[in-house]
Amino acid sequence: MPSLPGSPNHNSQKNALNIRKSNNLSGALEILEKLHQEKPEDITIILHLVETFIALGGEHNLTFAEKFLNKTGFFGQNQQNNNSISNLVQKIKKNSNIIYHVKEFKAKEAKYGVLNRQLPNVLSEYLRKKEIRLYTHQCESINQIRNGKNIILTSATASGKTLAFNLPIIEKLIENSQARALYLYPTKALSQDQLKALQELESAIQIPIQDDRYDYDTPKSERANIRSNSRIVISNPYMLHRVLPHHNQWSSFFTNLHYVVIDEAHYYRGVFGSNVAYVIRRLKRIARLYGAKPQFILLSATIGNAEEFGTKLIGESIHPITIDGSARGEKTCVLLSNIKTKMYRTAVHLLVELVQNNISTICFVRRRRMADQLGKWIIDDLEKKGKSYKNRVRAYHAGYTIKDRKEIENDLKKGNISVCIASNALELGIDIGSLDGAVLTGYPGSIMSFWQQAGRSGRRNKPSLAIMICHDNALEQYFLTHPEDFFTKKPEDAVIDLNNKKIFCGHLLCASDEYPITSNDNTFFGDKLKENIESLLIEDKLKVFDNNRYKYFGIHGQIQREVELKSIPSSSYKIMKGDKILETLTTEQAYREAHEGAIITHMGESFMVSKLDLDAHTAFVESIPENITNYTQSQKYTNIHHTQIINSFSLGSLECNFGEVTVENNYYKYKTFNDNQEVIEENDLHLPPIFFESKGFWFDIPQKIIQNIIENCSEPLESALEGTKNILKNVTPYFLLCDPHDIDIHIDSEDRQIFTLYDEYSGGIGISERMNSVFPKLIEIAIKIIKNCPCNNGCPSCVCSSINSDNAVDKSMTTNFLELLQQLLNQEQSL
Question: In which element (H, E) is residue 794 found?
């Protein structure tokens, strides 16, 4: 529904109460129609009551609400909002400083399906009362689940995925009074949304489902009852990881476990996905111990390899359902870049326009710190225009407390926020109501994420707007000048690496702690089980019992605490203002964003870090005057240590390696910028280095290439190497499901030049391992982008860094270097 420009008054609240008291839809509609007859001009109040009416049955009262709004002529009045989108697009087109491309997507009609047999009467009646017809993908999901198949359903945002699995699961719970189901979500907010949806459904059908959340926030006094009596348990992979060693407390639940639902499955990729895949295998193993073999139901955004990915995640065959039958409203997509204004200032100007045109919008930023900064800039700009929107412009990211995030989510649902600037935390399917616009500050790293974020606008079949402001880096400028390549690009493959020995052995120890390992467990852990058992025996981490049974040699339940699912350091830093905790950061984030002298923004207020206490893992901050709009950006240099070769291979005549690397990051200085993104100050940092283990792809740059560059170019060799690093880092996301920040490139420039592309996460995330298949394509598109760029000697759209850097680059030298590499890649290996 359209977002409301203000809060409801007393009479509105009274009518809302009467609507809630009316136990039937016709009674609620009578109240709405009476009000419209009495005060047809007060559309704000009417909309509030319509949203109250919809809230009675969640999304399912939408059909009735739309009938009412059609009857009252609201959609004619609301045409002004649609015109606002059109007017804004025309304004963009007329701005001579903006390079743009507009793509119109027509509305898509719904396609409805047929079930292979009727649902139980109580569920059929529920659908009838709500006037819900099931889409084709919902029907196929229900039919396949009933047939005992594992499924992975990939469809757009707000396409009814929840109903597709709730209906057959509740049907089973009605048929079998002992049946249980486990729902896994990656975030607490999603868990809470699902619990609310289940409770509304439970209330509507008048059947006690006994659903509960079980996570770290669940009071200990309630946990025993949930373990024994809850029939649907809503949790997350982290909690499951810690629950499995105590499976004896869950014996009734595991004995009767019929279904495991994994929502937002595409989220489980890279190292995190590999860890979760092994948690799932441990769950299956414990379920077998209690005589159960659960069926798996996966829900995902659209990805390129749904069946392959789903099979790897659960370790079983799976049926893919990839054709989406839901309806969609018209969507206008705009790619743009302002040639005279930096990306974030362009975003601010655009978001101010959206606010002034009453186009409710979500804006996605790559780094959470920019969410707060952008929010402050927008508020300041609006106040300069004499308008106060401080309470209607909000930032949102994972660093906020749970209480603050929940408050923002609720305000979004109620329409109390005009613009929300968010990290990708809101990319997932949290219910945030209906928004008219989505603005993306840069390419989010994948086509999948682009459509997830763009899909956050127009969630209720209305015309909507999605704008991606292109950064001045090579890949995004390529998309801007080749828009058809962008809009026709297929979703990327989601990658899970099950060959990471450290991950494998960590979960093998967990599994052996939960129940002794035997050779029969290769059903779950594959052919490398024996090899890894032997490694752990040598390390004295496993102990042998009778009949070749292997048990963890340590304190029960302790190993699960040591195995981190995201393979990142467990230590965290706090940001403190007096005795109040503002946010929490990882070690890397603290060094990068909360060093002494750093300016940070929290909830629209700016602070300066007065001290970063490394021993106490705490950054202390002080308030700074509101009129100071500066921000800071740290800089680092990196050393790479190649520790072990896992695989050697040839790409043409280039000898390459993939293996383990140790990354050493040194944050050595920071710059202070004004709000025009101009450097006004530089300061040194004195922080110890950060080390982490990762995976990398590397090769020695042949001396004949180095010599050719040195002999034929007047600039230093580093000018070619730096340009190569910049462009390859930015074009990697064109081929792989990643963000430019997920990888980095290091080229040694002393005795021997070693090119290393490595994963920027502890343990690796599977990107560098794919270089054996995509590296030649990276070189090819990099050369194409540079040659198509009209600049003379390099710019951020080709070989220069998109962030402020002191390193010089040379366009022609970079091109020459890449073309020489390409010749080697195209050559036959010499015999």
Answer: none
